[in-house]
Amino acid sequence: MIPFHPNANTDSTGLQIVNRAENVLVSRPLFDPQVTEISTPAALCLEAFAKNETLGSAIARAGDGLNLARLLGLLLAQNAIADIQTEDQT
User: Is the pLDDT of residue 46 over 90?
Assistant: First the structure.
């Protein structure tokens, strides 16, 4: 997950494009990179996962705007989940 900055300053009609960072998930489900825009709460949740925080902690960090079902569905569809650890595995 990286902030993505568009390169173009104008679109094909010459209209000015406002450059802003976007949260994206870059995954490689079948070895071909795919970029998917995600919400800020989803990005915060993924940051927590990357720091080995628990699911509960990740949800709390993300806040009220998190659509957990959508995020987990995206991660599963992109083969981005390699392992799920439970307490008895630690």
Answer: yes
- Residue 8, pLDDT > 90, answer no
Cβ 75 vs Cβ 59: under 8 Å: no
- Short-list 47, 44, 27, 45, CA closest to 36: 27
DSSP 11-66: -TT--B-----EEEEEE-TTSS-EEEE--HHHHHHHHHHHTT--HHHHHHHH-TT-
Give the pLDDT confidence score for residue 88 in this predicted structure: 72
**Nearest CA among 84, 86, 4 for reference residue 37:** 4
